[in-house]
Write the structure tokens for this entry.
Amino acid sequence: MRVDRLVLGDLDTNCWVVSDDAGGPAIVIDPADDGAAILRCVGTRDVALIVLTHAHFDHIGAVERLVEATDAQVAIHAFDAADLVTAEGTGSLVFGYDVSAPAADRLLSDGERFSAGQLDCEVLHTPGHTPGGICLLVRDTSGPPHLFSGDTLFAGSVGRTDFRGGDARALSRSIAERLAPLAPETIVHPGHGPDTTIGREERANFFWPRGTDTARP
């Protein structure tokens, strides 16, 4: 699997360009800003889908540019879809910006699966940071799974829940029910900051929910 990271925008948001490194199309996750830089990273690859982990402004700034250049569809969870198209919904007005994006072409749901070349992708609905927050679990034919966690899980921390639509209890449940059962070697690519693994966060993340509800199957 080929995973390229671009750190973009005023909030240093991670944009991920993911492909099977065998000639298959790319998935662009959270095109935060600087569409030209993202397109240079994509290069000659087709773009199978633009996936948004949630609708906050710092994760969507280059959506329109990428759609214009690639004609790729935009996918977001149904619960965040309405927020995507207004500056109020994306939270940008609070920070003095005016950022929105075109309406999504595809509404994602929990457990939905799709492929891109040799990559198998699964949508995990992880509300808490936003009502429609997702993580994208990506597997290829070898190696550990890769989790693109958006602002649900960071190295040593978790997403904020004090914005509109945030819910700390929902976030804790999301991590306990959807992320804790994942294999410890799962590589986590968050929306901000460095990579980590599920095993490392289980051991060292202060915010990781602990108890019998996080037991592995």
Remarks:
- The first strand starts at residue 2 and ends at 8.
- The radius of gyration is 16 Å.
